[in-house]
Every structure is written in structure tokens, then in C-alpha cells.
Structure of cyclic pyranopterin monophosphate synthase:
Amino acid sequence: TLTHLNSASEVHMVDVGGKEATHRTAIASGSVHFSNAETYSLIKNAQLKKGDVLSVARVAGIMAAKNCPLIIPLCHPISITSVTVDLELIPGNNSASAELVEGVPTNNGSVAVQATVKCYGPTGVEMEALTAVSGACLTIIDMIKAVDREAVIGPSRVVLKIGGRSGD
């Protein structure tokens, strides 16, 4: 059942007013894969002109989570109690054969992004966690585009949901 459609099949925001508030947590992950090995070195050695990529991406992810209902039309504005964005710079493996993500080999290095969002409320925070990951990944792309125009944002997904009716 699509909860965002009413009986006339019109889009509407779901009424969560009658739902019990519970502690809720969502964790999402994603990644940015570099198309060349130089990008990894430039980030690691803080040599990019735009600044500290990982710190700026972390703040962008937090800001994205907080602004989720402004970006995704049917998301409820909720009282987020915590947002954590973890980023890990992963070196390339210099392998001749590499898995491809959207045509970009994954052996040139990457940044793994994980966002954890918590709230106490009547609806979950999965979209806020995914928005945090997306905001961080987009910021990384923005900050490296001068040196890596072919970097790719890897798959993003919710990896854990706790609380509410369908949470673990």
C-alpha cells in the first residue's frame, strides 16, 4: 500500500499525529569512487584548494539531514536528536582488475560515508540518513571536481533501522 496516496490517488503527506513517539535510529551508507589515484593523495595530504574535503563533507551531511523535509516534499519535519556522519578515506589497491561503479574502476581509492540519525518521534529517520549521505557525497564531488571530473557516487542505501513498527 502506498501511504502517500489518498483514496482518490492524490499525493498527500501522511498523518502521523496518532502514532506513538518512540526512539528511532537509521544508518545509511554510500561512497565516492575516484577515477584517478591522484585524488586520494590530494585529499590525504590536504592539498586541494577548496580545503579539507572530509571535514566539509561531514558538515554538509549534517546540514543535509537537518534540511531533509525541504528537499524531499513528503518528509515530515522532525526533531532530530543526533546526526553523526563518518567518512573514511580508502586508498586504492593498485590492482589491474577492478570492480566498476558506473564505468569507474574502484581501485583508485574512495571515500566511504556512513550517517547515523536519531530522533524521538512518530516517524522514522531513514530519509534523513540517506539525505545526509547524499549531501556528504555531493560535497565530495564538488570539492574534487577540479582534479577528478569522472569520480562516481557509489550505491547509497539504508543499512539499519531501529524503532517504530518496522524497525529491528
The helical segments are 37-44, 53-66, 68-71, 126-144. The domain at 22-162 is CATH 3.30.70.640 (Alpha-Beta Plaits). The first helix runs from residue 37 to 44. The chain has four helices and seven strands.
